[in-house]
Amino acid sequence: MLKDIKGMRLASGALGCMLLGLSVGFLGCQRAPQSQQQAAVSSPASPVEEGLTAENVTLEQKDKNGQPLWKLEAAKTKYSKERKYVYLEGVKGNLYQDGKIVLQVRSRLGELEENGKKVLLKDQIVAIDPRNQAVMKADEFEWRPEEDVAIARKNLTGSNGNINASATEGRYQSRSQRLELLGQAKAIAKDPALQLQAERLLWEIPTKVVSSDRPIAVDRYQGKNVSDRLVAKKGQINLATQIATVEGNVELKSLEPKMQIASNSASWNLKNRTVQTNQPTRVLHHQAGFTATGNQGFIDIERQLVRLQGGTQAINLRKKANLYANQLIWQIPQKLLFAEGNVIYDQADPPLHLEGPKATGNLDTQQIEVAGNTGGQVVTEIAP
Predict the structure, then answer these.
(1) Neighbours of 7 (CB within 10 A)
(2) Closest CA to 15 of 46, 53, 42, 51
(3) Residue 167's closest CA among 136, 190, 192, 128?
(4) Tell me: the pLDDT tens digits for 183-238?
(5) CA distance 209 to 158
(6) Choice among 144-148, 197-201, 292-296, 338-342 with the minimum mean pLDDT
(7) Would you give the end-to-end CA distance of the chain in angstroms?
(8) Among 159, 202, 205, 158, which residue's Cα sits nearest to residue 180?
(9) Which residues contact 32 (CB under 8 A, 6 or more apart)?
(10) Taking burial as the number of CB atoms within 10 A of a residue's CB, which of 187, 269, 375, 379 is the most buried?
(11) CB 8 within 8 A of CB 18
(12) Is the backbone peptide bond immediately before 192 cis, with ω within 30 degrees of 0?
């Protein structure tokens, strides 16, 4: 609380300026000489009257080294002796860190609490970080200079030209320039065109990285339409490199072409629409009626090209034909398969079983050619 509140006194009656304790200064348009200010602080003062008001006042707070923590201008101030608060109207000013401006703020209302250790702004709040041009708006904004943190509550929005973000509330770490969005968090990026949603998003403004340790949904846009939609348990999107790294029950659905990719981790190139996985992967192409699986893979959504490695399998769901191999390449538009390493092909109608080191063919028409290397052996079994 304002323990030095009894030290409040009139510094200049003509201007209606005040001094609050030894740490929060109310400075008028005409600053008295330093010697006069020191005398005013150290000399006995008359008690401050309940409801004392002043207009067009400048207030500031400095740390023990004399560096500013905040400096505000208020069109009107009012002191509550009972609550030991100072109420402000028509507020604008600067918030500092290491003597440098980190936020430029304005609001309709404000309060000074805990002897200036807390600045609370209310209603029509705008806070701008001049270092990165991030603009934050909220219904309440609390500055804690000793913690280097600003807490925004109720209807938080943040933007910096490329991103428009929103959440129920958030915390801005002024030293790291990192905005934490909490509660129905959403971020919309222009380049690449994305929408991210999670219960918690962390926006690292200098590095252009948005991440979440909670379930996250990412929509990629092509023009005004969603081209791809991804969900995962957690993820990180680097807007500079346009790479999304996601983990945990990863599922990516392409709306055109209609393709579905599932894995436990993936690296998604948003610009090229490619997906790299290093864990078991499943690819489903709805129109072709095919499913392919492997221990790791590379999928080019734009070109409809699938490369899988390790225990691969391609399945024609409609015609009950299966192909197994160590490596598999699937060219979806051409309906071509290239398989290598311990190839096994089975089909139900007509019954057929093939084995060999390599295979090429069309699983849709069931035209498969199994070939051997030099000296390699091909096994063909035709059921009666």
Answers:
(1) 19
(2) 53
(3) 136
(4) 999 999 999 999 999 999 999 999 999 999 999 999 999 999 999 999 999 999 99
(5) 14
(6) 144-148
(7) 93
(8) 202
(9) 11, 12, 40
(10) 187
(11) yes
(12) yes
SS3 per-residue string spanning the chain: CCCCHHHCEEEECCCCEEEECCCEEEECCCCCCHHHHHHHHHCCCCCCCCCCEEEEEEEEEECCCCCEEEEEEEEEEEEECCCCEEEEEEEEEEEEECCEEEEEEEEEEEEEEHHHCEEEEEEEEEEEECCCCEEEEEEEEEEEHHHCEEEEEEEEEEECCCEEEEEEEEEEECCCCEEEEEEEEEEEECCCCEEEEEEEEEEECCCCEEEECCCEEEEEEECCEEEEEEEECEEEEECCCCEEEEEEEEEEEEECCEEEEEEEEEEEECCCCEEEECCCEEEEECCCCEEEEECEEEEECCCCEEEEEEEEEEEECCCCEEEEEEEEEEECCCCEEEEEEEEEEEECCCCEEEEEEEEEEECCCCEEEEECCCCCCCEEEECC
Length of the chain equals: 384
* CA dist., res. 29 & res. 59, Å (int): 11
Cα separation, 47 vs 5, in Å, equals 10
Q: Cβ(125)–Cβ(149) under 8 Å?
A: no
Q: How far apart are CA 119 and CA 114, in angstroms?
A: 9
Give the global pTM. 0.83
What is the predicted pLDDT for the residue at 83? 60
Place of tokens 């030894």: 22
